[in-house]
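Section 3.1: Structural characterization of target chains.
Under the original work plan, the team committed to producing a structural model for every single-chain target entering the pipeline before any wet-lab resources were allocated. The record below documents one such target. The sequence was received from the expression subgroup and is listed exactly as submitted; it comprises 256 residues.
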Amino acid sequence: MTGISPGFDLHGKLTLVTGGGSGIGAGIARVLARAGATVIIADRDTVAAERMVAELAGQGHAAHAVVLDLADEASVTRACADLLARLGTPWLLVNNAGLQDREALLETSVGEWDRIMAVNARGPMLMTRELGRAMVASGNGGRIVNIASNSARVPSVIGLASYAASKGALLSLGLTSAFELVEHGITVNTVLPGGVITPGAIGARGPATAGPGRRKPPLGMCEPEDIGAAVLYFASPAARYVTNQTLTVDAGASLT
């Protein structure tokens, strides 16, 4: 693969990105594809997934689409079984898909809390369980990268109680997964994005954004591919001895 440093070459690696049809997931998929990986776009939006596959294929990359709903256990288990039968065991799982709608803490409904938790926390657990089993069975090790959020550590926007709590759960899931899977040669790490320009962020439901998070970060707003670069590091040969770690990509927002 010309132009790719050997330390970051993913040629021959099968990778899967949840929520890969748009936003941060699409940025991650583009970075992984350029590093030589075969990318599985897993998304509940069939049109978005197929569009992303077509974009990558048009650039000469190998890509496939898998449709699943992270909030539905049966959908996850069925989709994972199908992709394992068709494509084999992914080397890399990126738990990226998430909901980020806002609701003021004192007005938070159980229904909204459960809806966000189902996708942002339970969904990644299901994906880790299903594909983690396959990674262990393959005996070839593997990588898992979770996309949490810096809001799990540093509250900065009013209305993200459910979202931040779900991302805190994902952060803890990563720590536990790293502990339980290290003996199988599977590393687990977490990326904590700050503000990223995505359709999901722009179109999030709920009250207008309020709080310190409205300030522009010192280095400017992140782009989806900035998060993809962090994922590439954790997925790469260069990070073969890195596990149980978190990397914040927030353009310096935590300094303000």
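Residues 110-138 form the longest helix (29 residues).
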